[in-house]
Amino acid sequence: MIKSDKFWDKTAEKYSKKAVPDEEKYQNKLAETQAFLSEDMHVLEFGCGTGTTALHHAAAVRKIDAIDISQKMIEIARGKAAKAEINNVAFTLGTLKDFNAGACSFDAVLGLNVIHLVANRTELIAEVARILKPGGVFVSSTGCLGNSSFRFLKFIAPLFKLTGLIPDIFIVSEAQLADEIKNAGFSIERQWHHGPQGIDVFIIAKKL
Ligand SMILES: C[S@@+](CC[C@H](N)C(=O)[O-])C[C@H]1O[C@@H](n2cnc3c(N)ncnc32)[C@H](O)[C@@H]1O
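^ thats the input. predicted complex w/ S-adenosylmethionine below
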């Protein structure tokens, strides 16, 4: 079995050069996120990839901890931060669980294009709720295949994963994800989708 971190290590160089699939929607997400950020905030991003979004938000907040399971993604992100002379973003290898942040220690947590790649989503969202301060924001963008024709990937994904062509992918619907976030103690402040069959779901939630 090819582990997902190896998949992302192999993909990292290409990923860092790839254009964002929908620039307008990406800019909307950045702007909506920044409306919830302020310069005194400590932010954590899990699954940060090559750091594009963390580096974009760096000037708007006090500090960002950005983590990813891929060593190669982290190396590229650190290189981009050094080149741009951005000093308030720390890139660390690992999962959110490995990072083991203190309870109520962050003002905002970002998980962009990553939640559908994590096996235990309930545990992940509970961990986000644990580390956020009350009133803190959780910003996510998730591939929700649950109601699309791509949901049948569930049956063939394990085979493709054996070939190393795809990473772990878990099927969730938009409604199911929104419920899981609400059930973990959040109110949903923004929710919209885009992409083929509306599968890219953007949610901003506030910890109650
Ligand atoms: C599709 S990329 C998204 C990268 C970035 N967030 C973006 O929006 O461009 C998914 C990233 O999540 C990372 N990843 C996958 N599973 C993870 C996990 N359990 N914890 C942290 N990072 C993970 C991968 O290494 C990869 O860099």
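The beta strands are 42-46, 63-68, 89-93, 106-112, 132-143, 186-194, 200-207.
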